[in-house]
Write a structure and sequence with these properties.
The protein is mainly alpha-helical and 309 residues long. The protein has 10 helices and no strands.
Length: 309
């Protein structure tokens, strides 16, 4: 009975001992494998990370996912860089296009201006080009040139009527305006008969002359206006005299012959008015020119004689 009791007591103790032995073995295995307990897992993870850091290998699990995410972020950044590069290229392309357009726009007017000539005209450069192109012979060219001069003198005469201080200058301006308006009508008739187109404006140099005179006042304006008119009519008288003799077209010859007497009278009036304003007369200028020419000739002769000696 005692034996059975001991046997009965030892059986549970043996089972308990076996269970404890198995548990110890399991713990040892868990410790070796790094699983089964929280502390075992931490040690296994630490050991794995340490080995991975030494060997350069990538840990599995979260570490792999982290690198993948970083790679994805890097890829996304690369895409952004590529997008920004494309944006920069588009911006550069757009700026280049804008620059090209602006260059084209700024170059075009300059090219057109240089093609149409260096002189701009009131009333349009196209009008002047057509008038010049229609002047296909000397008679027609004469009409075109006189149309420009006539319009310019009409403008200056109108200005002198407003700004002139001397009564003689005002009277002269009134006579100019009347005669040149009449000459312009006759000029247009001759141009129609000859088939030439007259310009409806004046070149830039004539406009500048008008602008300069507008800035003057009093006696200074009077003297400058008369000086311009005297020089213009001296030139016109010579041109009309020659055209009245040389013109082949009868309409042009008739126009030049009929207009010449008025121009000669204008020149004489300008001479008298210029003298009254204290300007040198044409005779004085010719005398001074002849004297200078004579002195130059005698000086040259003296130098030649001296060199011969």
């Amino acid at each position: 009975m005692v034996t059975e009791s001991r046997r009965g007591m030892s059986a549970p103790g043996g089972r308990k001992w076996c269970l404890m032995t198995k548990h110890v073995i399991a713990l040892a295995a868990a410790a070796a494998l790094g699983i089964g307990t929280l502390s075992g897992t931490s040690r296994a993870a630490d050991e794995t990370n340490r080995v991975g850091a030494q060997t350069g290998s990538i840990p599995s699990g979260a570490g792999t996912m982290g690198q993948t995410g970083a790679a994805q972020q890097t890829g996304t950044s690369g895409s952004g860089a590529a997008g920004s590069s494309r944006s920069d290229m588009n911006a550069n392309s757009g700026s280049s296009n804008t620059s090209d357009t602006s260059n084209t726009g700024s170059a075009s007017p300059n090219n057109v201006g240089s093609t149409s000539g260096d002189v701009s005209f009131k009333g349009g450069s196209g009008d002047m080009r057509e008038a010049i192109q229609s002047a296909s012979d000397p008679d027609k060219l004469f009409l075109v040139c006189q149309a420009i001069d006539n319009q310019s003198e009409i403008q200056l005469a109108q200005l002198a009527q407003d700004k002139a201080q001397d009564p003689q200058v005002k009277q002269f301006a009134q006579r100019l305006l009347q005669d040149h308006q009449q000459a312009m009508n006759q000029l247009q008739t001759a141009a129609q008969e000859c088939g030439v187109q007259l310009p409806h404006g004046t070149p830039a140099i004539k406009q500048q002359e008008l602008k300069v005179l507008q800035s003057l006042n009093g006696k200074e304006f009077d003297q400058k206006f008369i000086s311009c008119m005297r020089a213009a009519h001296a030139k016109a008288v010579n041109e009309y005299q020659d055209e009245a003799q040389l013109a082949k077209d009868p309409h042009v010859k008739d126009f030049a012959s009929k207009t010449l007497p008025a121009l000669q009278e204008h020149f004489q009036m300008s001479e008298r008015t210029a003298t009254a304003l204290g300007l040198p007369s044409g005779a004085e200028a010719q005398t001074a020119g002849a004297r200078m020419s004579g002195e130059s000739g005698s000086s040259s002769h003296g130098n030649t004689s001296g060199s011969n000696r």
